[in-house]
Design a protein that fits this description.
heterotrimer, A alpha/beta (432), B alpha/beta (472), C alpha+beta (157), A: 432 residues, alpha/beta, 5-stranded mixed beta sheet, 42% helix, B: 472 residues, 8-stranded mixed beta sheet, 11 helices, 20% helix, elongated
Chain lengths: 432, 472, 157
């Protein structure tokens, strides 16, 4: 399996986020002049050829997305960077912005010029205060070095970049909610049709929304070519990838691996196996929105298509590992609680379903569950699945349904024994 | 014309039309909806109108999905039925189900769709969220417990009232629809919130707890509040008028009407209204029978050399012509309280309200009624003041005439200067025609018969023209 | 117009103004600056922001009440924001929260009487590889444990 560290070589080191270090360590800002020389048609083609798929969660081909931007529209075009990293378990974009902000900025400049945008908004989640400061500093450096500003790279192209802070709303990671949020509105997703960002995006203008890691891939694709990029990972799932491992492993953290890396190898070899000598019980392979995998199902490769085939998804590559001493209902409560708190509330199934699911899970965990509750959970999930404006409905339904299906016996034990078989209280139930 | 196929039936559509618009226009299958309203922007939030389109993996909302030629749509597939049932159940999860004390009962979308689309049993058994009822100004009372978050009210204020005063506060399950600081609604169209609210969350204080709607008998009316001539539905029960609501007319008022018009019917059943012929010649009012009143007024007319009719412009075209035909030699004047002539009329806001607060000035002008400015009460030996109660003659004007007779709807506290009142019909007690500011002739039907001993103008005129009966 | 905010607020607004085609789009930046200065977003602050941007206060309230980062109630000098999402929970965030509640003698969501500490629960902070995490005001405290928590509380008193 071909592999090369392209992101994380300098992670954890002090002073690597500056423009000088970026130039010295990572051949920084050499892709940009190369791209200008290539011309934007060729750059677009190269990104398309690389097979780069969006790293935010949906895995949509990046080049195709750029290609949707109309060429002969008089309207302004915008590039928006989705740095609203909030999917539970995910912390990769934070690392990029902390240690390689310029890699993202350079990628964003290339992307903006490709789609003929003169304005870049970087929407960073509100809690990332320190990261926003680092980013602001890096942006100032890029202005000073002439990569941004009235005469970007001496080409006469005006390009501005602003760091726009979110304010504590998971839903703003959904691209159309994010656009509403930039416009100063409530972060509620828009309906599609008609609000496809490439046609009617930010301020009603054609807009591309790209994830941080996606854009960070762009300079290396320009520099080293699509063919090189495709040497990593299986067909249609190319590239090196940052995997976020958390939960019950001995060495949680960020791991850079080629796409298609085996999950069990990552757990047992890279992360030193399950902690406290326990056994693997289950794992979320792609954030809390991905259907849970049982220990047996964890024999899977980490890429978009393999995980889809396994009935789950790569999502944001946030792998949360659960050991066998953990009550699955408690995990479900944390999951349900999160979605209840974060639902924007505009669609009926999501607004009502998330609360209902949370209440049901709490009741079960407290040993007060009823016979029909498990079927009811499944049915509520079914009724939320595919009936909402955005993917939030599915993001709630899929993991919770997978849990009740795959760990049904454990759920039933809570009902028959009228208590949690793992002992302890009913869990810390906040935020009612 | 391009077509979509809905449940196997071909339905034609116009370019840009959404599925729900095509089915509504063709009066094909009724697709259930809460957040969709023809007069408001589309948000597709309630998810009730989910339908299945052949070739698409996910269900789509009929309100936001444009028709495409040959599109095959199912509103009855198992997938659709299951999802819609789910949505209906979610909506009821936090609904108080307090239909017995809810004013919306009988015209509530939740009730209506529970039949065709609801769950047989209630599976939700947790505490329902609760809020305290809130007064939203003179027009509207809010019950947030019943709210289904369709946001029609928010969009109504933004788009129709054009004041951003109703908003969603907080998010998700704890979203509450409010006005900031509980401010009273500023819009002159607040009553419309009760129309657009598909459930019992927003009700008008005027109609609240007055009547169960299933007892009401609706009729087609035209508002007499201004020269716009908004089309309305008037609803009565046991000859009592309970409420006015807008009636769709795309050329006039679309789906809307203002509060002034909506609540401007209470003179009809006012205890102050004079509902029997009244003789005031002695200086104090004395109720008399028609049989005494008509001959007395006839006698007054017989001796008069000059007669004028001061006609408030809430008279119908039919009434005006009747008077002209019957008393051709008299002078006729038209009166609006706010403009001297229809040329002075102008819009008062972006939507419907107009300066001319009379419904038929344009019509009377077309019949060559003279303007009020040319009227000198002293010039005539007898002046008939004609009013339907909505436009009332200036107080005290009758006193300037040598003799004055009131014909129509008059209030007891406004009788200064009259010798006789012959009680007549308000707009809601007669059929007729108004000509609005655009010159559109709009006919309407009676809702209730004239209150008490009141008679329509036509029957009074017949009486005044009849040869005197011989007393045997 | 009367200056309701400190100079930093106006400097920041001047700096970013050219990036936004309308005033409403500056709402989130303005609210961040206002909260940075005043610690929370009061009713008056909403009015001040609305006046500054020339937008209705209703639009400000809609947004403020939507975004949980904006505090509509005053918080303590140290706002202990515990993540209790899956990854942190798997790593013992619940014990930490219990401990903090006992130590500060307040419940979740409350502020100590001396106004020093607020304990709040927040959703995933993106520090899952170094869980559990507690964000105290703007700063992340990663690989947090009871020992570190005690030090923070005692060091702040």
């Amino acid at each position: 399996m071909n592999s090369e560290i392209v992101f994380s070589k300098y992670y954890g080191q002090a002073g690597v986020e500056g423009i000088d270090a970026y130039k010295k360590n990572e051949a920084g800002y050499t892709a940009l002049p190369k791209a200008i020389e290539m011309g934007w048609e060729k750059v677009l083609q190269e990104v398309k050829d690389s097979g780069l798929r969006g790293r935010g969660g949906a895995g949509f081909p990046c080049g195709t997305k750029w290609g949707f931007i109309p060429k002969n529209s008089d309207k302004a075009k915008y590039l928006v960077i989705n740095a609203d990293e909030s999917e539970p378990g995910t912390f990769k974009d934070r690392a990029i912005m902390t240690y390689q902000p310029h890699l993202m900025i350079e990628g964003a400049i290339i992307a903006a010029m490709t789609i003929n945008a003169h304005m870049i908004y970087c929407y960073i989640r509100g809690e990332y205060v320190k990261e926003a400061e680092i980013l602001e500093k890096a942006v100032a450096e890029a202005y000073k070095a002439g990569y941004l500003g009235k005469n970007s790279c001496g080409t006469g192209y005006q390009l501005d970049f602003v760091v726009h802070r979110g304010a504590g709303a998971y839903i703003c990671g959904e691209e159309t909610a994010l656009l509403n949020s930039i416009e100063g509105k409530r972060g509620e997703p828009r309906i599609k049709p008609p609000f496809f960002p490439a046609a009617i995006g930010l301020y009603g203008c054609p807009t591309v929304v790209n994830n941080v890691e996606t854009l960070a891939c762009v300079p290396m694709i320009v520099n080293r070519g699509a063919t090189w990029f495709k040497t990593f990972g299986p067909e249609k799932n190319s590239g090196m990838k940052l995997f976020c491992i958390s939960g019950h492993v001995n060495r949680p953290g960020l791991y850079e691996k080629p796409m298609g890396y085996p999950l069990m190898k990552l757990i047992n070899e890279d992360c030193g196996g399950i902690w406290r000598g326990r056994k693997l019980k289950a794992a979320f392979p792609g954030g809390s929105s991905s259907p849970l995998l049982t220990a047996e199902e964890c024999n899977v490769n980490l890429d978009f298509d393999s995980l889809a085939k396994a009935g789950s998804m790569l999502g944001s590559a946030a792998i949360m590992i659960i050991d066998d001493a953990t009550c699955m209902l408690k995990v479900a409560i944390r999951t349900a609680h999160f979605y209840q708190v974060e639902s924007c509330g505009q669609c009926t199934p999501c607004r009502e379903g998330t609360m209902w699911l949370k209440d049901l899970h709490h009741r079960l965990e407290a040993g007060q569950g009823r016979r029909g509750d498990l079927d009811l959970i499944e049915d509520i999930c079914n009724n939320m699945d595919g009936t909402t404006i955005c993917a939030f409905g599915e993001a709630t339904a899929w993991p919770l349904r997978s849990m009740v299906k795959k760990f049904r016996a454990e759920y039933e034990q809570h009902i028959t024994e009228k208590r949690c078989p793992f002992g302890g209280s009913a869990g810390h139930a906040h935020g009612h | 014309m391009p077509k979509v196929i809905i449940d196997g039936v071909e339905v034609e559509f116009q370019a840009g039309e959404k599925i729900i618009q095509a089915t509504d226009r063709a009066k094909a299958v009724h697709i259930p909806r809460y957040c969709y309203h023809d007069g408001l922007s589309i948000v597709a939030q309630c998810r009730m109108c989910l339908v299945e389109v052949e070739g698409q993996k996910k269900l789509v909302t009929a309100c936001s999905t444009p028709c495409a030629d040959g599109m095959k749509i199912s509103t009855k597939s198992d997938k659709v039925k299951k999802s819609v049932k789910g949505v209906q159940e979610f909506l009821l999860a936090n609904h108080p189900l307090d239909c017995p004390i809810c004013d919306q009962a009988g015209e509530c979308s939740l009730q209506e769709y529970s039949y065709g689309h609801g769950q047989e049993d209630a599976r939700y058994d947790f505490f329902r969220r609760t809020f305290i009822d809130v007064d939203m100004g003179p027009s509207i009372k809010k019950n947030m417990n019943r709210c289904i978050h369709c946001t029609r009210c928010i969009r109504y204020c933004d788009e129709v009232g054009q004041i951003h005063e109703m908003i969603a506060q907080n998010r998700g399950n704890s979203t509450e629809i409010i006005t900031i600081d509980n401010n009273p609604l500023k819009t002159a169209y607040a009553g419309g919130l009760a129309d657009v609210c598909p459930v019992g969350s927003l009700t008008t204080k005027d109609f609240r707890f007055k009547k169960r709607v299933w007892y009401l008998k609706p009729g087609e009316g035209v508002c007499d509040g201004c020269s716009q001539g908004c089309n309305i539905t008037h609803s009565q029960e046991s000859n009592y008028l309970f409420r006015l609501e807008p009636r769709l007319n795309m050329e006039v008022n679309k789906w809307w009407m203002c509060d002034e018009g909506r609540y401007g019917f209470h003179h009809v059943h006012s205890p102050s209204r004079v509902v029997g012929p009244t003789d005031l010649r002695s200086g104090s009012p004395k109720g008399v029978m028609w049989g005494e009143a008509i001959p007395a007024v006839k006698e007054m007319m017989a001796s008069a050399k000059s007669v004028a009719f001061f006609v408030c412009a809430d008279a119908t075209q039919e009434e005006a012509s009747t008077l002209q035909k019957a008393f051709g030699s008299a002078d006729f004047f038209s009166y609006s309280p706010t403009v001297a002539a229809s040329a002075e009329d102008k819009p008062l806001d972006h939507l419907l309200r107009r300066k001319d607060k009379s419904p038929n000035l344009k019509g009377l002008e077309a019949l060559n009624f003279k303007p009020y400015s040319a009227f000198d009460p002293k010039k005539y030996e007898i002046v008939f003041f004609v009013s339907a109660g909505k436009v009332r003659p200036p107080y005290g004007l009758a006193k300037l005439a040598k003799k004055a007779v009131g014909l129509g709807v008059f209030l007891k506290e406004e009788l200064l200067g009259y010798q006789f009142i012959l009680p007549g019909a308000s707009t809601y007690e007669k059929a007729g025609t108004f000509v609005n500011f655009k010159g559109m002739k709009q006919s309407f039907k009676a809702s209730v018969p004239p209150v008490g001993m009141s008679r329509t103008l036509e029957s009074v005129v017949v009486g005044l023209l009849e040869a005197p009966r011989k007393v045997s | 117009m009367e200056k309701k905010f400190g100079n930093d607020f106006y400097a920041e607004m001047d700096r970013i103004q050219r990036f936004y085609p309308n005033k409403r789009a500056m709402l989130l930046p303005a609210l961040h600056a206002a909260q940075g200065e005043r610690g929370w977003i009061s009713d008056d602050t909403m009015q001040d922001v609305a006046d500054f941007l020339g937008i209705p206060k209703t639009q400000v309230l809609e947004a403020v009440s939507f975004y949980h980062w904006f505090k509509m109630k005053p918080v303590g000098k140290f706002n202990l924001q515990f993540c209790n999402n899956i990854a942190c929970w798997l790593r013992g965030s619940e014990e930490l929260i219990h401990h903090a509640e006992q130590k500060c003698k307040v419940k979740m969501g409350e502020t100590t009487k001396d106004g020093l500490f607020t304990i709040s629960e927040v959703e995933c902070l993106g520090s899952c590889g170094t869980a559990p995490v507690c964000q105290i005001n703007n700063d992340y405290h990663e690989n947090f444990d009871i020992h570190k928590l005690d030090k923070v509380i005692e060091g702040s008193r």
